[in-house]
Amino acid sequence: MSENVKEVSDANFENDVLKSDRPVLVDFWAAWCAPCRMLAPTVEAVADKYAATARVVKLNVDDSPETTAQYGISSIPTLLFFKHGEVVDQVQGLVSKRVLTNKLEAQLS
């Protein structure tokens, strides 16, 4: 995994995501999810590209049921975009790097 992608959990979600001073892309995933594994290199590439301006984190839905339920995550992969502690955008399923970068760029402007 890229050094620019951080693992978050129920325990540190508030501090690392909701209180972040930068936009945050949260990848809700699980080890058993094939599309999640297929999306991982794309998420890592986005994390590397935006390391200076945004934060990219992964949350394992099996290990963090509270946060998963709080945001109504029912299918994975789901990616939520946070800005100032609020969900401002989301995508579900296997998406392209272009889709992720376009949505992240919108939060940086």
Provide a descriptive summary of the structure in words:
By secondary structure, the protein is an alpha/beta fold. It has one domain: Glutaredoxin, CATH 3.40.30. The chain is built from four helices and five strands; from the N terminus they run E-H-E-H-E-H-E-E-H. It has helices at residues 13-18, 34-49, 65-70, 97-108; strands at residues 5-8, 24-29, 55-60, 78-83, 86-92. The chain has a five-stranded mixed sheet with strand order 1-3-2-4-5. The radius of gyration is 12 Å and the shape is globular. The model has no long low-confidence stretch (mean pLDDT 96).
Concise summary:
The chain is α/β, with parallel strands linked by helices and 109 residues long. It is built from 4 helices and 5 strands.
- CATH topology, anyone? Glutaredoxin
Q: So what's the CATH class?
A: Alpha Beta
Q: What would the average pLDDT be, to the nearest integer?
A: 96
Order of helices and strands: EHEHEHEEH
Helix content: 25-40%
Which descriptor suits the 3D outline? Answer: globular
Contiguous low-pLDDT stretches (5 residues minimum) are: none
Strand % is 25-35%
CATH architecture: 3-Layer(aba) Sandwich
| First and last CA, distance | 28 Å
Largest sheet: 5 strands, mixed
Q: Tally the beta strands.
A: 5
Sheet with the most strands: spatial strand order: 1-3-2-4-5
Distinct helical segment count:
4
Classify the secondary structure makeup into a structural class. Answer: alpha/beta
Radius of gyration (CA) equals 12 Å
CATH superfamily: Glutaredoxin
How many domains? 1
